[in-house]
Specification:
Order of helices and strands: HHEEEEEEH
CATH architecture: 2-Layer Sandwich
Strand order of the largest sheet: 1-2-3-4-6-5
Strand content: 25-35%
Number of helices: 3
Shape: globular
Number of domains: 1
Radius of gyration: 14 Å
CATH class: Alpha Beta
Oligomer: single chain
Length: 145
């Protein structure tokens, strides 16, 4: 679920604006699919922070885990709106990466080591791989709440 009605409206407005613009790499459907997947997790709350020209961040939180409520950060990198791409980041210790497709980022997420997956096109197989990581991260949050 979204944090509130204003957050849902902001995400929908961002998607509508993106739909009206360019998406040559086919990233928009991946972003929408990841948004929808996030909402399938009990206790998950989506927050949205938009910084046009920099990024638009969908933050999947698990408020029941006070120690570290952020489970996943889905960033739409917006430095070139005609060539947007996604960086999907997690706390490194909250998931596995059996195919080693993510990048390890020391202290990259709220001061903790992160694992980030860059989706630069509409690669459905990679999107499904990242969806599994989202589910894994939320399972980790639930187990540690």
């Amino acid at each position: 679920m979204y944090a509130d009605a204003a957050t849902e409206a902001a995400v929908n407005a961002f998607i509508a604006q993106w739909t009206a613009g360019e998406d040559g790499a086919g990233v928009l459907p991946v972003f929408v699919a990841l948004c929808e997947h996030l909402h399938t997790h009990d206790g998950a709350v989506a927050e949205f922070v938009s910084r046009p020209g920099v990024s638009h961040s969908l933050r999947g939180t698990f408020p029941g885990w006070a120690a570290r409520p952020l489970a996943v950060l889905v960033d739409v990198i917006d430095d070139d709106p005609a060539a947007r791409w996604l960086s999907v980041c997690f706390h490194d210790d909250s998931l596995t990466d059996p195919e080693e497709r993510g990048d390890w980022i020391p202290t990259g997420l709220n001061g903790n080591d992160a694992r980030c997956f860059n989706l630069e096109d509409g690669d459905e197989e990679f999107m499904h791989y990242v969806k599994k990581r989202i589910s894994e991260a939320f399972a980790h949050c639930c187990a540690n709440a």
